[in-house]
């Protein structure tokens, strides 16, 4: 429970903290990795290099401080963070490390503005949030253990099959190697894959499960990530999976996690799944789950991709499109010369407001979307402009949500 003086002081310093939030988080990571290098294994080097991790933490700090007197607004954010922490194996004894370096970074950046009273309030606020997360993570860990076939930590799974999905995407079918069943999961969740990489220490990676629950296997579909800017690291684990992991090999895998899951509508309203590139993976799990259970309401699935060379799941999408109540559309923004004439796509162009207005039942549908940053920003902005309420927009974004929401129009 936050002390009233803590709430008052945090509200007073929020504008100053927000103005320096990214500077604070950069200083925080520098300090923590220098003084506690053992925690660096939990952080993705590519996200650190791009600044995405620093921006995400800055956004989380600003959201917490801004809602310090209305913590119910943070329920969704707490769940997202707790699920991510459990996917990586974060434990209660990690929280004092983070708290120490975060407070030190705030003092370093804000200087004399951090009086003893401010320092005490920030520490109080951090400890309350930390306990909320620790309690929720304990419940998730317990649920993982008690789910039939479930576990905590990592478990050896065997690569039963490798299936190329496109020039850049390969699916890996993972089965139990010890005869124990795999646990059920919610469509849209992910698992964590860990390797002792032969050349470079690296953090675990999260990959969405791309097939429906109940198959007896986990399927992850991995895009080979290449560096787009000089000096930035390529996808170390994605390239290792593509180049080195063959059928019959053992992979260390964490249990399913994640809060981006599908909620079948109670009133038979349409469901629209919008996928950009490899963002199709959680949405494929959702769509195949809905199809398997005979969805009685309209389901719209859009896959936006560059062209047929890189698009994954083309045959699975055609099969889904043949099902009752399913409407599937493939849209390329850089099609090959014969992609349209050969029927590999249904249209060409971006997923903009005009396309969404014309193709989706946007007035009453539930929207689920996932994809790269430009796709997510455009979709979120278009749906907002079309009047789709935030509670009808469900999305997974591997970065600060503010990058999406801040670029959407404000609709009175």
TrEMBL record:
Gene Ontology biological process: cellular response to nitrosative stress; nitric oxide catabolic process
Coiled-coil blocks: none
CDD domains: flavohem_like_fad_nad_binding (cd06184)
The protein's enzyme class: oxidoreductase
Domain of life: Bacteria
InterPro entries: Cbr1-like_FAD-bd_dom (IPR008333), FAD-bd_FR_type (IPR017927), FNR_nucleotide-bd (IPR039261), Globin (IPR000971), Globin-like_sf (IPR009050), Globin/Proto (IPR012292), OxRdtase_FAD/NAD-bd (IPR001433), Riboflavin_synthase-like_b-brl (IPR017938)
EC id: 1.14.12.17
UniProt KW keywords: FAD, Flavoprotein, Heme, Iron, Metal-binding, NAD, NADP, Oxidoreductase, Oxygen transport, Transport
GO molecular function: FAD binding; heme binding; metal ion binding; nitric oxide dioxygenase NAD(P)H activity; oxygen binding; oxygen carrier activity
Name this protein carries in UniProt: Flavohemoprotein
The species this protein was found in: Aeoliella straminimaris
């Amino acid at each position: 429970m936050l002390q009233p003086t803590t709430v008052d002081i945090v509200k007073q310093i929020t504008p100053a903290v927000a103005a320096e939030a990214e500077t604070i988080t950069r200083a925080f990571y520098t300090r923590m990795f220098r003084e506690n290098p053992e925690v660096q294994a939990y952080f993705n080097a590519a996200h650190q290099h791009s600044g995405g991790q620093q921006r995400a933490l800055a956004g989380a700090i600003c959201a917490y401080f801004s809602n310090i007197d209305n913590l119910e607004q943070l329920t969704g954010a707490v769940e997202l963070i707790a699920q991510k922490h459990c996917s990586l194996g974060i434990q209660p004894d990690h929280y004092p490390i983070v708290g120490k370096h975060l407070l030190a970074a705030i003092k370093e950046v804000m200087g004399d503005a951090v009086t003893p009273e401010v320092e005490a309030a920030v520490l109080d606020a951090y400890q309350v949030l930390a306990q909320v997360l620790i309690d929720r993570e304990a419940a998730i860990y317990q649920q993982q253990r008690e789910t039939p076939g479930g576990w905590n930590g990592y478990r050896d799974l065997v690569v039963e099959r490798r299936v190329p999905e496109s020039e850049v995407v390969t699916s890996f079918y993972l089965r139990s190697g010890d005869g124990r069943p795999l646990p059920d999961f919610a469509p849209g969740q992910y698992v964590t894959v860990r390797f002792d990489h032969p050349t470079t220490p690296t953090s675990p990676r999260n990959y969405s499960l791309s097939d429906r629950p109940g198959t007896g296997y986990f399927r992850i579909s991995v895009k080979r990530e290449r560096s787009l800017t000089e000096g930035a690291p390529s996808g170390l684990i994605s390239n290792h999976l593509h180049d080195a992991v063959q059928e019959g090999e053992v992979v260390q895998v964490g249990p399913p996690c994640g809060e981006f899951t599908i909620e079948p509508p109670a009133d038979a309203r349409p469901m629209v799944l919008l996928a950009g590139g490899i963002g199709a993976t959680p949405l494929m799990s959702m769509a195949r789950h809905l199809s398997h259970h005979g969805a009685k309401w309209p389901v719209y699935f859009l896959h936006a991709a560059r062209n047929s060379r890189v698009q994954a799941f083309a045959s699975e999408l055609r099969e889904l499109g043949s099902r009752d109540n399913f409407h599937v559309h493939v849209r390329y923004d850089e099609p090959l010369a014969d992609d349209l004439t050969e029927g590999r796509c249904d249209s060409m162009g971006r997923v903009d407001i005009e396309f969404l207005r014309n193709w989706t039942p946007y007035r009453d549908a539930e929207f689920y979307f996932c994809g790269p940053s430009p796709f997510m920003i455009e979709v979120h902005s278009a749906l907002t402009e079309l009047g789709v309420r935030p509670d009808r927009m469900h999305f997974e974004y591997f970065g600060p949500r503010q990058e999406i929401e801040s670029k959407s129009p404000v609709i009175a």
